[in-house]
Structure formats: C-alpha cells, structure tokens
Amino acid sequence: MNKNKTVLLSVSAAIVAIGVLLDQLSKYLAVRYLAPVFSRPLLRGVVDLTYVENRGAAFGMLAEHRWVFMVISTVAILGMCAFLLTFSERRHLFPAAALSMIISGGVGNMIDRVRLGYVVDMIDVSPLFDFAVFNVADSFVCVGAALLILWYLLDWIREEKENKRRAAETEANAAEAATTETETSAETPAARADRPAPEAAPHPTNIDEPPVSGQTADADDGQDDRAARHE
Fold first, then answer.
1. Which residues contact 122 (CB under 8 A, 6 or more apart)?
2. Residue 106 maps to a domain
3. Residues forming the active site
4. Which of 8, 56, 138, 155 might form a disulfide with 134, Cβ 3.0–4.6 angstroms?
5. Per residue in 75-102, pLDDT tens?
6. pLDDT tens for each residue of 159-169
7. How far apart are CA 216 and CA 210, in angstroms?
8. Roughly how many angstroms between the first and final C-alpha of the chain, as a whole number?
C-alpha cells in the first residue's frame, strides 16, 4: 500500500469515527435532556431543538418500510466503502473526505435502527421554513453528498480545460510542421544550389600500411649505388 493511499484511508477512518461519535452523542443528549420537554429554541426564529422518533428513512420518509431501508442502507454503506478503497492519489483526498461523511451519517442512523428500531431526530428549522426534523447524521450525509457533487463538477471542468489545452498544442504543432514543409517546398533551385556541400570525412591514415613495390625497388637501387662508390 503506497503512502498516499495510507493517508487517504487514515483521514477517511477519522472522519467516519468523528461523525459517528458526534451523531451518537447528540442523540444521547437529546434522549436524556430534550425528550422530557419535547422542544426548546436554540436560535430563536431560526433553529429549534425538537425531539422526534423517526421510524422511516431520511427526514421521516416511508416510515412503514424500516427493514427495506436497513437492507438498502447496508448495501449502500458497503458499496461506498469499497469505492473508497479505489482512491489512491493525493487529489482524491477531497472526494474521500466527502464520501466518508456520507458513510458516517449512514452508520450513525443504522446504529439507531438496529438498536432502537427508530432514528432520533432533533434539529428543527421550521421557524425559518417548513422542513422535516433531522439529525447530525442526516447533516453529514447531505453535506458530504453536496461536496462530492461539487468535486466531480470541478474535476470535470479541469479535465475539459486540459483536453482543450492539449488540442490547442497539437493544432499548433501541426500548423508549425505544415509551415516548415511549405517553406521547404517553395525554396528555389538556385537557393538549394547555393547551399554549402557537406564536407567529406578525412580518410584515416594507416601507419602500418606496407610500402608499395616501386618504393621498395628505388630503395634497393640506392643501397647498391652507395655500396659501389664505397668499393
């Protein structure tokens, strides 16, 4: 396992653990302190804390099909974990973190469904606008999904720009090659004749080459003449 993959998996595991911890802690506090009073304002006119037992899917949808959502949630969580293992580059840190947020939210709500048979919700934004009560796990899922979509959009834009840059470089290289070929074909014969001819490589001299026969004969005659004068 390379270093980048180790870092990605470590960050992802930390995000999942922190998300599940925050979700379960908020639900524990809601059951202990909020359930007896049902609701209390957190930011007046914006957010209330309201205790709700959600027996359906996210935001209370389809409450009569709990086991169906448990199966679907389990398959989805396992699929996202498997997909998370395919990330191996440093640029995958952002989508890995976003996917880990989705996984942590799914695990947090799954714990409630298995342990209690329902999911504890407590975040109520109805003072601001009409919306279902949700919890920390739902927030992690929605924020993680939004970040993942944002990353894919930005990555798509980056790839499109890179493809355009490569296409422009290829077109520029082709145009330059065509210009060079045109200039070469348009050169006049006189201009080609004026080009300096390439110099021939010097022939190497072999110091071990024996003398030719004529040179040997002249040398022998010179020795005979010197011997006759000496006598």
1. 26, 27, 30, 34, 49, 50, 51, 52, 133, 135
2. yes
3. 121, 138
4. 138
5. 999 999 888 888 767 778 889 999 999 9
6. 888 888 888 88
7. 10
8. 100
How far is Cα 191 from Cα 122, in angstroms, rounded to an integer? 89
Confidence class of residue 231 from pLDDT cuts 50, 70 and 90? very low
Tokens of 60: 């209370």
Which range marks the domain in which residue 132 is found? 3-144
Residue in the block written with tokens 């935001």: 59
| Residue 93 in domain | yes
Token code pair at residue 112: 């409630």
- Partners of residue 53 on adjacent β-strands: 120
> Scanning the structure block, which residue is given the tokens 């407590």?
122
**Residue 123's beta-bridge partner residues?**
49, 134
Task: List, in sequence order, the alpha helices (H) in the chain.
Answer: 3-29, 66-84, 93-115, 136-185, 189-193, 213-230
Q: Which two tokens stand for residue 94?
A: 């952002």
The order of strands in the sheet holding 47-54 is 39-43, 47-54, 119-124
Interval 102-130 mean pLDDT: 89
> Do 30 and 123 meet the contact criterion of CB atoms below 8 Å apart?
no
Q: d(Cα 139, Cα 53) in Å, to the nearest integer?
A: 17
Tally of structural domains, the chain: 1
- Is residue 210 one of the residues assigned to a domain? no
CB-based contact 119:112 (threshold 8 Å): yes
